[in-house]
Amino acid sequence: MTPFAGAVRLSGTMELAGLDPRIRPARVAAIATSAARSLADWPTTLDTATGQPRPWAGFRPITPDGLPVIGRLPGFTNLLVASGHAMLGITLAPATAEAVADILKHGPTVTPPLLIPFDPARFSGF
Questions:
Q1: Residue 73: closest CA among 111, 114, 113
Q2: Are the C-beta atoms of 69 and 81 separated by less than 8 Å?
Q3: Closest by CA position to 29, among listed 46, 14, 41
């Protein structure tokens, strides 16, 4: 639950559904019901006339192995990637920024040993 533009934003599910962006009404209802246990007068049904609450779904950048992708793209010396953090992007942003700075500091031919598990080259065989 977070404040958002004069309102409250609830989020509570992650569904591994491929590239299917449909919103599942049962999941929206479960979130609303759960919120109503803690928030007075919280609506447990969607009011289509006002659009409140307004459900939304989006894709998360997640990699096949679940690890972020941080490093230079194979074949490029001037292109860095810092992505694939799933739902931890804001949490991992400071550490990722330090990792990118470390990559830049070492130059285009060196991957710092600590960052090898995150190297984009690990996907070269796909």
A1: 111
A2: yes
A3: 46
